[in-house]
Design goal:
Layout (H helix, E strand, L loop, with lengths): L1 H7 L2 H18 L1 H14 L5 H27 L2 H6 L1 E4 L10 E5 L5 H11 L3 E4 L5 H12 L1 H5 L2 E4 L3 H9 L3 E5 L9 E6 L2 E6 L1 H9 L2 E9 L4 E5 L10 H18 L25
Parallel strand pairs: 1-9, 2-5, 2-8, 3-4, 3-5
Antiparallel strand pairs: 6-7, 8-9
Length: about 280
């Protein structure tokens, strides 16, 4: 049904509907609204309470659009997806050598990875969802790119495969700006706060001698511009400095499109540990 609808109606119609969904979510999803407001208050203390609330509302609108974008990327015709995407900076990606393309937790994460995976062969690292039914839908939507371009998804716990893929010259997309239950971490500055960030990407880069290149996505009314930026310099030598470099880049990007960063996630929180990076030691 969704495949048919995405063929019949233009993308702008669905994005309009997504914005309305976000506005409803702002009213009824009180827990996430509270988290967003708390994060925005810490990140933008210079804004008035009214401005902070408006930013939170715009973020929920962007979240609603992000859900629609995900459904679009999983169901829309490939030719239609190509029409809305413009990819720049491919010349920055090293040839015949592993590369980590660093994305961040913006609301355009799903469609950004999909459009990149349609333009060039990549492997996107992902986390399985707790809801098994939704996880099955997500994996089915993401896996459809394999036959078209060879782009695949990799469970974040399959570290051996990630290492092998990079060492064989593959390009891996990772979103690693959040402190998670995976891996070692370090405290760095982010929006004037000390936040814990995983150092797994730094260790991956060192272990595989891969370059790390940040990826940005800019939304137009009905199109998306993806840009792969030049690689971070001296990345993979100092995990703490690497984490700070990564978050400095992210903060600059988030300040340009603040409504699109994932403020509904608990950004300013305490970290957890497990054994994700044991194989990298």
């Amino acid at each position: 049904m969704l495949k048919v609808l995405f063929r019949i109606f233009p993308l702008r119609f669905f994005l309009w509907f997504g914005r309305r969904m976000g506005e409803v979510g702002f009213v009824i999803i009180k827990k996430r609204r509270k988290i967003a407001l708390e994060n925005i208050k810490k990140a933008f203390p210079e804004l008035s309470a009214k401005q902070q609330k408006r930013l939170a509302l715009n973020h929920f609108r962007s979240l609603g659009m992000g859900l629609i974008e995900a459904l679009c990327s999983w169901n829309a015709d490939f030719n239609k997806l190509r029409e809305i995407a413009k990819v720049e900076g491919m010349e920055n990606v090293p040839q015949n050598k592993g590369a980590i393309i660093m994305f961040f937790h913006f609301t355009s994460l799903e469609i950004g990875c999909s459009l990149l995976g349609l333009a060039t062969r990549v492997a996107a690292v992902y986390r399985k969802q707790n809801n098994t039914r939704f996880n099955a839908v997500m994996e089915q939507g993401r896996n459809r790119f394999e036959d078209k371009t060879g782009s695949i998804i990799i469970d974040k716990n399959d570290l051996r495969f990630v290492l092998k893929y990079l060492k064989n010259g593959g390009k891996v997309v990772i979103a690693s700006d959040q402190n998670s239950t995976a891996g070692n971490w370090t405290f760095v500055d982010f929006f004037g706060q000390k936040v814990p960030v995983t150092t797994a990407v730094s260790k991956l880069a060192k272990a595989t001698e891969s370059k790390v290149l940040p990826l940005s996505v800019r939304k137009g009314k009905t199109s998306y511009k993806l840009k792969i930026h030049p690689a971070f310099t001296n990345f993979g030598q100092d995990p703490k400095q690497d984490a700070q470099t990564m978050m400095n880049w992210l903060e600059t990007e988030a300040r340009q499109i603040p409504e699109q960063y994932l403020w509904t996630h608990r950004i300013f929180k305490s970290p957890h540990k497990n054994s994700y990076t044991r194989l990298l030691k």
